[in-house]
Design goal:
alpha+beta, Heat Shock Protein 90, formyl-coa transferase, domain 3, eight-stranded mixed sheet, five-stranded mixed sheet
Length: 623
């Protein structure tokens, strides 16, 4: 029987390795940027076309390569950083396996120009699918310039799995941000399709964070610094009030290498306990410097996971350092035995302000059961509450009865104000369109009398359900009505969010927004959905929350794009718990809720309506 096991050709082996090393254009960007950093460059340019599918070019002013090294860098397992196995536990560079360039060259058309600073002539190499096409001398600047053209050109199945250009560009921006954050002393630029996305001068870490994410981050940052015999920790964390519902701006670096570590992330989240809501995540950019002998970086193909020799101690140091920084800047309670922070305002050189004792004012004639007592809060609610949830409900009939007092409600016999028919399991809740007197409990729940007892409705969840089904319909038929803004508003997003917004622009317009691009990372909002026209809404804030909510919905629930967009819009546009509603608003809300396809459950899957029967009430009063 003939032998059947054979060695793979190098070209095939490289293509297989490429599937592990180069998953998308962003993977190639990461490898090239890290190679430029390892070469000692202090100025790096990244040029991208067609979201990296057509071109990825990295130009650096690093050390450059000799003729032999230029050829050897494309061989598998060829590296300048590892000579023996023990070197794996003393690595402080980014790349070390020697697979990146060989893998990239196996699935793309590569052109590299390189020249050492002490040489007059450089070298140019061209490779297509692991095949060397050309190598010859060339005049070039000191350093290295690498062009990767037509990524996955010879593996069309892999190319078909790539996402849209905006989606792939967001991944490239993510990698660019991680690398540039880790090396603030290096100047970086990023161009996409001829447009400059970033120009980052050499700076300190805080300035680099502000350059990447925006000037408004200057007030959001809290410094963290801790030196111990195990690790040195430094960086910045975000103030709790600026936390977001997505994990996007969270960065851990170990020896300047970006890592993902759920264990360390848990330590940081514990430090924010009782300062953040459960669904909010703080900003952090933290650097851990540790002896390479105490970690193993060679445990994951993308090198984003690390094993630690003493991870429990690192956990404790990180948690206590973040907690202390939050306390030091009066974010969380702290005890200072030298000075109580509560008296810090009084210990000044200026004359202290006069301390005014608190006073209590009350109306001795106040009667909570008076039928005609005025309510400024209720009038304000009428002004701010949307007069229409988008139409379609018809005109409302006048209220059949104006209750004078709670006593009158309690003693009133049930009438034909039919609200809920409790039939068999196949029968949905049917709500009578007859308008009736309703009550609001703690400005959070609506109470309605029904034949069998009473019904409680969560006003926020109900409105979210109404808007979600309406926005879903708009996205399907592309007919969301818009109301022109008197004064168009501009909204400036981060480059990542701007790419996301561009990919969603058509769907956003279907909801009723009128939005157009306006310069670098900026959009102009010229109209908003008519469903929101009656409420005093900050268009800029609404749009930012829409993008943030979309990212959260896709990240947590893995929803399709349109469904995630409808959910985000509904959550950010709905009335909130604590808002005072009038009789007309409550009746409109209930009528439109029971006109929905799924009125009984919120968009989070929680109950919207609860009923309490007379039998249950009688038991509570021992009747």
């Amino acid at each position: 029987m003939s032998d059947i096991i054979q060695l793979l050709p190098d070209s095939v082996a490289n293509q297989i390795a490429a599937g592990e090393v180069v998953q998308r254009p962003a993977s190639a960007v990461k490898e090239l940027l890290e190679n430029a950093i390892d070469a000692g460059a202090n100025k790096i340019q990244l040029i991208v076309k067609d979201a990296g599918k057509a071109l990825i070019q990295v130009i650096d002013n690093g050390s450059g390569m000799s003729v032999t090294d230029a050829r050897m860098c494309f061989e598998r397992h060829a590296t300048s950083k590892v000579r023996k196995a023990e070197d794996l536990f003393a690595i402080r560079t980014m790349g070390f396996r020697g697979e990146a360039m060989a893998s990239i060259a196996a699935i793309a058309q590569v052109e590299m120009k390189t020249r050492k600073h002490d040489e007059e002539i450089g070298t140019i190499i061209e490779i297509e699918g692991s095949v060397f096409v050309k190598q010859e001398p060339v005049a070039s600047s000191p350093g290295t310039s690498i062009c990767i053209k037509n990524l996955f050109y010879n593996t069309p199945a892999r190319r078909n799995f790539l996402k849209s250009n905006p989606a792939e560009m967001r991944h490239i921006i993510d990698e660019f941000q991680r690398v540039s954050l880790a090396h603030p002393a290096i100047a970086f630029t990023l161009h996409h399709d001829g447009v400059e996305i970033y120009r980052l001068p050499s700076a300190i870490l805080k300035q680099r964070i502000i350059h990447l994410f925006g000037n408004n981050y200057n007030e959001r940052l809290i410094p963290v610094e801790e030196d111990t015999s195990i690790i040195n920790l430094k960086g910045y964390i975000g103030k709790p009030e600026f936390a977001k519902k997505t994990r996007g701006e969270q960065f851990f670096f170990v020896n300047n290498r970006f890592i993902k570590d759920a264990y360390l992330n848990h330590a940081l989240n514990r430090a924010y306990e009782e300062l953040l809501a459960d669904d909010h995540f703080p900003l952090y950019v933290l650097f851990i410097d540790i002896d390479p002998a105490n970690i193993d970086v060679n445990v994951h193909p993308t090198k984003t996971e690390i094993k630690y020799l003493d991870e429990k101690s690192i956990y404790a140091i990180l948690h206590s350092a973040v907690k202390r920084s939050l306390g030091r800047f009066n974010i969380s309670p702290t005890i200072d035995f030298d000075q109580e922070t509560g008296f810090s305002a009084m210990i000044t050189h200026k004359a202290p302000e006069e301390i005014v004792p608190p006073s209590i004012s009350f109306n001795p004639d106040f009667n909570p059961f008076a039928a005609d007592r005025p309510s400024e809060a209720r009038d304000a609610a009428f002004a701010s509450f949307p007069k229409s949830y988008g139409g379609g409900a018809g005109k409302m009939s006048p209220s059949t009865k104006n209750w004078g007092s709670l006593y009158e409600i309690a003693n009133h016999e049930p009438t034909e104000q039919a609200a809920l028919e409790l039939g068999d399991e196949e029968t949905e809740h049917q709500f009578s369109p007859v308008q009736k007197q309703l009550m609001q409990l703690h400005n959070r729940y609506i109470i309605s009398q029904i034949k069998s007892g009473l019904m409680l409705i969560d006003q926020q969840a109900a409105h979210e359900r109404i808007l979600y089904e309406r926005f879903t319909l708009h996205l399907e038929d592309r007919k969301g009505a818009s109301q022109q803004s008197l004064f168009p508003q501009t909204v400036t997003l981060s480059p990542n969010d701007f790419e996301l917004a561009k990919s969603l622009l058509e769907d956003i317009k279907s909801l009723g927004f009128e939005v157009r691009e306006f310069g670098k990372n900026t959009l102009v909002i010229e109209g908003i959905p008519v469903d929101l026209g009656g409420s005093n809404i900050n268009e800029t804030q609404l749009f930012e929350h829409l993008i943030e909510g979309f990212k959260n919905s896709q990240q947590e629930l893995k929803l399709d794009r349109r469904d995630a967009l409808a959910r985000s819009m509904a959550r950010n546009s709905a009335i909130k718990s604590g808002m005072v509603l009038g009789q007309e608003e409550m009746n409109t809300l209930i009528e439109q809720l029971f006109a929905c396809k799924s009125p009984n459950f919120s968009i989070s899957g929680k109950p919207v309506v609860q009923t309490i029967g007379l039998t249950e009430l009688d038991k509570k009063f021992d009747r």
